[in-house]
Amino acid sequence: MTTDPWLPLHLSATSIQRYLACPADYRAHYVLGVEHPPSAMMLFGGAIHRALEAYHKGDDPYMQFSKSWRMAKEMLTQLGVGYGEHLTGAGIELLSLY
């Protein structure tokens, strides 16, 4: 049995959404292996996620969010990717509502 290199061995909801949004982007990512820099919202979501993990482990979620988001902002600055400073306050507000 021959495997066509253009056909994936596994399909995920994310890969299908990427293909439907932009077939060229799908090919670049899944076929050619080109990585895109993370977006500000991806990194923000990751910082919130780590803060909630800290909360459920009994640690300080605000400290974890502050640390994770500070590192994310440094990465975004190095990549030349903009981010809204309002996200810091939004993250703290999200945590207080949780």
Poorly predicted runs = none
Tally of individual helices: 5
Strand-residue fraction?
under 5%
**SSE string, helices as H and strands as E:** HHHHH
Q: In angstroms, what separates the terminal alpha carbons?
A: 52 Å
Number of strands: 0
SS-based class:
mainly alpha
State the helical fraction: 55-70%
* Shape type: elongated
Tell me the major beta sheet: none
Radius of gyration: 18 Å
Average residue pLDDT = 89
Give a verbal description of the structure:
This protein is mostly helical and 98 residues long. The protein has five helices and no strands. Helix 3 packs parallel to helix 5. The N and C termini lie far apart (52 Å). The mean pLDDT is 89.
Short description:
The protein has 98 residues and is mostly helical. The protein has 5 helices and no strands.
Write the layout of secondary structure elements.
Blueprint: H1 13-21, H2 23-31, H3 40-56, H4 61-79, H5 86-97
Helix pairs in contact: 1-2, 3-4, 3-5, 4-5
Task: Jot down its keywords.
mainly alpha; 98 residues; elongated
